[in-house]
Specification:
Number of strands: 7
Radius of gyration: 23 Å
Oligomer: single chain
Order of helices and strands: HEEEEEEE
Largest sheet: 7 strands, mixed
Structural class: mainly beta
Length: 131
């Protein structure tokens, strides 16, 4: 009888410890609604609000969106959905960004920069940053 009670107690402890184990992913992500995106020869400028009132921006180099780099992806946002940006991190380090934006470049969501705007130094980034 004592052996049975000890075995049952041991099984209970082992089963509780197995179910209590947390399996956390090394990946995390952040979805951010976009206000506007400017397409530039050096990349994309994404405008968004994080705290509800201050507009922030990020410079996303065109190289991130080229085949083989995999740090940037552009997908067409479905009709009726608001444009957004998803930033994916692995162990809290930037992995890639996905822009879900309207497919039509004539959409008012897309912005145009004045001719001769030189922003090359702003796009010289290796990781996702918020200005």
């Amino acid at each position: 009888m004592k052996k049975t009670a000890i075995v049952l107690a041991l099984l209970l402890v082992v089963s509780v410890s197995v179910f209590a184990f947390k399996n956390e992913s090394e990946y995390s992500y952040r979805n951010i609604p976009l206000q506007k995106v400017y397409n530039n020869q050096n990349g994309y400028i994404a405008l968004f609000t994080l705290d509800g009132y201050k507009v922030s921006k990020s410079y996303l180099p065109v190289d991130w969106f080229r085949f083989g780099d995999n740090r940037g992806h552009v997908i067409a946002v479905p009709k009726g959905c608001y444009p957004y940006m998803t930033i994916v991190y692995k162990n809290n380090e930037f992995q890639y960004v996905t822009l879900a934006v309207p497919k039509n470049p004539a959409d008012p969501f897309w912005g145009t920069l004045p001719a001769g705007t030189n922003l090359k130094e702003k796009f010289a980034v290796e990781s996702f940053q918020i200005d």
